[in-house]
Write a structure and sequence with these properties.
With 350 residues, the protein is an alpha/beta fold. It is built from 13 helices and 12 strands. The structure holds nicotinamide-adenine-dinucleotide and zinc ion (ZN).
Length: 350
């Protein structure tokens, strides 16, 4: 069992423990109090873990309602968001009650945003069931839904009362979805922790508690320094400039994790070509990414990727920031005039 304390505008624990879902009721009782809990989940996760979660909440004396969305990114939209707000109202939830997100990043982002809005903010708890949600989306307080114009365009910074990470739930994750989370895990090693990067040469699945704990600690440090994403938090976007462009250009048939895997390789290679890191550093990133069965090469050309990257929200006026490794475990933000981005991406994918 491990626990990491996050110090943001609100302090909270991330509890990482095998089998802890069975005790989520008492943990939520201690962290959030209240009378009622709305469990928000998707159909896949509901079939696997819904009953266990609800049973624990009932045995802790809660009134429990469940709101289930179809699985997949398409559910992180405005109509599910409004449906959830109306559901909370119909079921007479109040500000002192809790929304518990049981699932991956889609459920967490949607449920968290609804919790931040309903009655101007009710209690919120994250119960991540994907590796990506455990190491990334459930910690740090970013919530959002997608709009027609793009991903994550409407949302709020809204911290949970507690994060309950039962890594036993990851056993049912398909390998492919598990690998997506591994891309974000590798990202932490590259940007912030060389020893952890080395450690990842052993399979993540065999060291899952240690891996999740280290990633959450690294995210904690970044979030504590820059909760509202005006500075250092930007380094978490390593691999994401090219990654988002790949993802968007595929109409999201290439998953986020696979886009980030390709993006990390491209951005490291570009950094090496520009003399920011060594060729060995870029090779090390690529070989670790490949060892997890993740893709390393962009299927799209420079022009296509640059166009997509420039429509991204990381652009600030005439410049765009890209996170580049300077060596394994260290990184910095490189700012380019937008017209130079094409050269950077070109250097990374050629
Ligand atoms: N808020 C943040 O800081 C942040 C950070 C990174 C990503 N995100 C968001 O997270 C989302 C991606 O999250 P994700 O990769 O978890 O996707 P997801 O929530 O869609 O989950 C992936 C799939 O796995 C299934 N699943 C979940 N848990 C399972 C389990 N234990 N066993 C079997 N199947 C399971 C789900 O039903 C779904 O089909 C994106 O929308 C992204 O924008 C948010
Ligand atoms: Zn990501």
């Amino acid at each position: 069992m491990a626990s990491v304390r996050i110090e943001a505008s609100k302090a909270y624990e991330v509890i990482i423990e095998k089998g802890i879902l069975e005790r989520c009721g008492e943990i939520i009782r201690n962290a959030a109090g209240g009378d009622s809990v709305c469990v928000v989940t998707d159909d896949t996760v509901d079939a696997l873990y819904g009953e266990r979660c609800v049973a624990s909440l009932l045995s802790s004396g809660y009134r429990v309602e469940k709101f289930v969305i179809p699985h997949g990114e398409q559910s992180k939209n405005a109509s599910q968001f409004i449906r959830l707000l109306n559901f909370l109202a119909q079921k007479r939830f109040t500000r002192t009650d809790t929304v518990a997100a049981l699932g991956g990043g889609v459920v967490g982002d949607l449920a968290g945003f609804a919790a931040s809005c309903f009655t101007r903010g009710m209690k919120f708890v994250q119960i991540p069931t994907t590796l990506l949600a455990a190491v990334d989306s459930s910690v740090g307080g970013k919530t959002a839904i997608d709009l027609d114009a793009g991903k994550n365009l409407a949302g709020a910074f809204y911290q949970p009362e507690v994060v309950i990470c039962d890594y036993l739930t990851l056993d049912t994750l398909p390998d492919d979805i598990f690998a997506d989370g591994c891309a974000e895990v590798i990202k932490y090693g590259v940007i912030a922790d060389a020893a952890f990067f080395e450690f990842l040469k052993q399979p993540v699945r065999e060291n899952i508690e240690k891996v999740i704990t280290r990633c959450v600690e690294l995210k904690r440090d970044v979030v504590a320094a820059d909760e509202f994403d005006n500075g250092i938090r930007f380094i978490l976007n390593y691999g994401h400039t090219v990654g988002h462009a790949v993802e968007a250009n595929s109409d999201f048939t290439i998953s986020h994790g696979k886009g980030v895997a390709i993006g990390m390789c491209a951005e490291a290679r570009a950094a090496a070509r520009m003399g920011i890191c060594s060729a060995d550093c870029a090779d090390a990133v690529e070989s670790l990414v490949r060892s997890y069965g993740l893709p390393t090469r962009s299927p799209y050309d420079v022009r296509t990727l640059t166009e997509k990257a420039l429509s991204d929200k990381k652009r600030r006026g005439g410049t765009i920031g890209v996170v580049v490794p300077t060596e394994i475990g260290k990184c910095r933000v490189e700012k380019f005039p937008v017209e130079k981005l094409c050269d950077f991406i070109g250097a990374g994918i050629e």
